[in-house]
């Protein structure tokens, strides 16, 4: 299954690399990550809460819960709604136990079970109160899928006022499908809310924290930015179901649960139990970005619901709340701790600003209705925060009438950064490695905000995270990188998928309740993001950029901080090709460089929970002689060559970086 886009040639392929001909800078934001709560990405995924429907706010209040009667115990469960008093968290459960003996209670199934690890500590918390005259203890137990006890604790709420109670359990066994039960012992009645179980071992051991293994995979990429919270989730199926950042901050119990729009989006992957608790809210997203060294890049609803669904719009004269949300978000992120919104950030534990420099207005909108609304945002935001770069959209497709209209319009409006999305076949990625070669150097910058090779068809459930897709993305990414003077950000999408809870595939990282692994697509992204230079230099064959001739693709950069030359070379053919890289402008290169290779003769190769790194980079050393590097470019391979020098020729950006010539780019 050769991915041949042009004919083969024989003989050594000579590449001229001119490290002294810098033609542009690479933005530190260049390679980032795109986060959306799709595929159980947040609830049931990176957000480490193990209890599903902890506050009974799902559409069906007891979804995820079961009544339990031990030794024929009698009792009743009654859902109360105090909506008048607490609009954000209206429901709680009254558990009335009617037997002296036995135990009456509830069992939570978790998100396709709960991932529990032997020897680890789990922190149980609950909001509870006794009903008058009652003094019921609760036994909290972790059970394996087979019903064996993995640990327990007893909590006895005192008094008739709501209070928070805590207990910790150390698990005696490992199970990806464990469950939690809460059993009242004796007669009486208890009110329960926010029944929660977290591993102690979260990312940075934070309470209400994130799964450490999943964050680590992101941190390992050293991403330049973190885009959040989506995706179509920002838009909502209806405007009522849109993402509203202000409802995702402050006390976790006061963040109103909302349906997740991906629950029934695809008939082939219905997920009726998919809701957003917003335990991972905007504060936590900013904190995550900071933790992994990524620039925060929030995207806000622009007064339009998803156009693949209702496409509802807010009347133009009623946009004020949306604009105010955007202004307040900038203050929340960047304002002093004394400002109205900065104060809330400080109260949540982060007095220092988050230093947000980018804001997305709308996700994947199209049509005049987007332009009309974008202009209102632009006017208000630029008046108050001229330094915050706004990201505008060109719709869901990389070409066609919607794209052309918005591309032209946004350029005429002198937009800061334009977001382009491409969910396309692997062949498209190879054929479009030159996409940006002739983009206007003086116009808006580009954010390649969502892309992924669709190995079968867009969002087909048969798409695979295989080498064919990842290799094609690598070929395309050399084109992004060659044009990094205009493309300032790029991110693969979607990011996470739960093996039993996904709606969309392919996805960069797959998880189950205990494990996570990076796909070949992940390792391609990581190869690029962890080997990114500071400046662009030409790499050419026969005075032409390397954009698919002989199925070879290449980009080159230098890192002025480390004096390294970095070459990325992709061979999409099924033949090994001998390459010789002739380096100019590299002074006293070290005699040994490195090459990181990803290769497989099997384009269908994937990674798995059993073999998570089956296809991942391996590093070898490589000789540098007479300013030349020779490398056999193996069939279907991505190669990152690094050569360190005592210095790189001193140079400055040439005029080609500022516009005009594509020669040498
Ligand atoms: O990444 C999945 C979806 O694809 C995103 O939510 C949306 O922006 C795009 O259509």
Describe the protein.
With 665 residues, this protein is an alpha+beta fold. 15% of the residues lie in helices and 33% in strands. β25 (509-511) and β26 form a beta hairpin. The protein is globular, with a radius of gyration of 27 Å.
| Terminal residue distance | 31 Å
Q: Tell me, rounded to a whole number, the average pLDDT.
A: 95
State the CATH topology of the largest domain.
TIM Barrel
Number of helices: 9
Structural class: alpha+beta
* Assembly state: single chain
- CATH 4th-level superfamily of the largest domain: Glycosidases
How many extended strands? Answer: 37
State which percent range the strand residues make up: 25-35%
Ligand types: alpha-L-arabinofuranose
Rg measurement, Å: 27 Å
pLDDT below 50 for ≥5 consecutive residues: which ranges? 1-9, 653-662
For the record, the CATH architecture of the largest domain stands as Alpha-Beta Barrel
Pfam family, one: Alpha-L-AF_C
Keywords: Glycoprotein, Hydrolase, Signal
Domain Alpha-L-arabinofuranosidase C-terminal: 449-637
GO biological process, one term: L-arabinose metabolic process
Break the fold down into its secondary structure elements and pairings:
Elements: E1 13-18, E2 24-25, E3 33-34, E4 65-70, E5 75-81, E6 91-97, E7 103-108, E8 114-116, E9 121-130, E10 138-143, E11 149-155, E12 163-170, E13 175-185, E14 188-199, H1 212-220, E15 225-228, E16 258-259, E17 275-276, H2 282-291, E18 295-300, H3 320-334, H4 340-347, E19 358-361, H5 368-384, E20 389-393, H6 401-412, E21 417-424, H7 426-431, E22 445-453, H8 467-482, E23 487-492, E24 496-498, E25 509-511, E26 516-518, H9 520-529, E27 535-537, E28 539-541, E29 544-545, E30 552-559, E31 564-571, E32 577-584, E33 586-589, E34 592-599, E35 618-625, E36 628-633, E37 637-648
Parallel strand pairs: 1-32, 3-15, 15-18, 18-19, 19-20, 20-21, 21-22, 22-23, 24-25
Antiparallel strand pairs: 1-28, 2-27, 4-7, 5-6, 6-14, 7-13, 8-13, 9-12, 9-14, 10-11, 10-13, 16-17, 25-26, 27-30, 28-29, 30-31, 31-37, 32-36, 33-37, 34-35, 34-37, 35-36
Helix pairs in contact: 3-4, 8-9
The structure holds alpha-L-arabinofuranose.
């Amino acid at each position: 299954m050769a991915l041949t886009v042009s004919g083969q040639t024989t003989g050594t392929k000579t590449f001229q690399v001119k490290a002294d001909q810098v033609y542009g800078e690479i933005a530190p934001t260049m390679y980032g990550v795109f986060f959306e709560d799709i595929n159980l990405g947040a609830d049931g995924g990176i957000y480490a809460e193990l209890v599903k429907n902890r506050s009974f706010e799902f559409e069906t209040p007891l979804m995820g819960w079961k009544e339990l009667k031990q030794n024929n115990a009698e009792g009743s469960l009654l859902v109360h709604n105090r909506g008048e008093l607490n609009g954000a968290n209206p429901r709680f459960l009254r558990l009335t136990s009617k037997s002296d003996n036995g135990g009456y209670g509830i069992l939570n199934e978790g998100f396709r079970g709960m991932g529990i690890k032997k020897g680890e500590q789990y922190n149980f918390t609950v909001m509870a109160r006794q009903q008058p005259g009652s003094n019921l203890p609760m036994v909290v137990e972790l059970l394996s899928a087979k019903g064996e006890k993995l640990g327990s604790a007893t909590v006895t709420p005192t008094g008739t006022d709501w209070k928070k109670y805590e207990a910790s359990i150390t698990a005696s066994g490992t199970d990806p499908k464990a469950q939690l039960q809460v059993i009242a012992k004796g007669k009486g009645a208890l009110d329960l809310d926010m029944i929660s179980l977290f591993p102690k071992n979260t990312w940075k051991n934070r309470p209400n924290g994130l799964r450490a293994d999943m964050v680590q995979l992101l941190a390992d990429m050293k991403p330049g930015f973190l885009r959040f919270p989506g995706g179509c989730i920002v838009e909502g199926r209806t405007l009522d179901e849109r993402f509203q950042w202000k409802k995702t901050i402050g006390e976790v119990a006061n963040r109103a649960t909302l349906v997740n729009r991906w629950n029934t989006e695809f008939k082939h992957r219905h997920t009726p139990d998919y809701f957003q608790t917003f335990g991972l809210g905007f504060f936590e997203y900013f904190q995550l970005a900071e933790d992994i060294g990524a620039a925060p890049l929030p995207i806000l609803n622009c007064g339009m619901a998803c156009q693949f669904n209702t496409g509802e719009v807010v009347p133009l004269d009623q946009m004020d709340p949306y604009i105010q949300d955007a202004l307040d978000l900038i203050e929340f992120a960047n304002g002093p701790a004394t400002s109205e919104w900065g104060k809330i950030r400080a109260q949540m534990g982060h007095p220092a600003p988050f230093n947000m420099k980018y804001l997305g207005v709308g996700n994947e909108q199209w049509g005049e209705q987007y332009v009309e609304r974008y202009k209102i945002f632009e006017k208000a935001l630029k008046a108050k925060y001229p330094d915050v770069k706004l990201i505008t959209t060109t719709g869901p497709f990389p070409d066609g009438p919607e794209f052309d209209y918005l591309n032209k319009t946004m350029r005429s409006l002198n937009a800061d950064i334009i977001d382009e999305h491409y969910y396309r076949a692997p062949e498209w990625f190879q054929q479009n490695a030159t996409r940006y070669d002739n983009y206007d150097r003086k116009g808006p910058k580009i954010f390649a905000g969502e892309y992924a090779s669709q190995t079968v068809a867009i969002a087909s459930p048969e798409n695979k995270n295989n080498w064919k897709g990842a290799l094609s993305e690598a070929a395309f990414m050399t084109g992004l990188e060659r044009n990094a003077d205009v493309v300032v950000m790029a991110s693969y999408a979607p990011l996470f998928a739960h093996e039993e809870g996904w709606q969309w595939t392919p996805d960069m990282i797959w998880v189950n309740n205990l494990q996570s692994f990076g796909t070949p697509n992940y390792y391609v992204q990581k190869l690029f993001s962890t080997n990114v230079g500071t400046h662009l230099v030409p790499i050419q064959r026969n005075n032409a950029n390397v954009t698919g001739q002989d199925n070879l693709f290449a980009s080159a950069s230098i890192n002025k901080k480390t004096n390294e030359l970095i070459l990325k070379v992709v061979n999409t053919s099924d033949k090994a090709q001998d390459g010789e890289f002739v380096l100019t402008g590299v002074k006293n290169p070290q005699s040994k460089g490195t090459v990181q290779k990803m290769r497989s003769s099997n384009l269908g190769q994937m990674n798995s929970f059993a073999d998570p790194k089956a296809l991942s980079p391996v590093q070898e050393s490589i000789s540098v002689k007479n300013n030349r590097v020779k490398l056999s470019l193996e069939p279907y391979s991505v190669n990152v060559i690094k050569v360190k020098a005592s210095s790189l020729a001193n140079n400055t950006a040439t005029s080609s970086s500022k516009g005009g010539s594509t020669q040498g780019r």
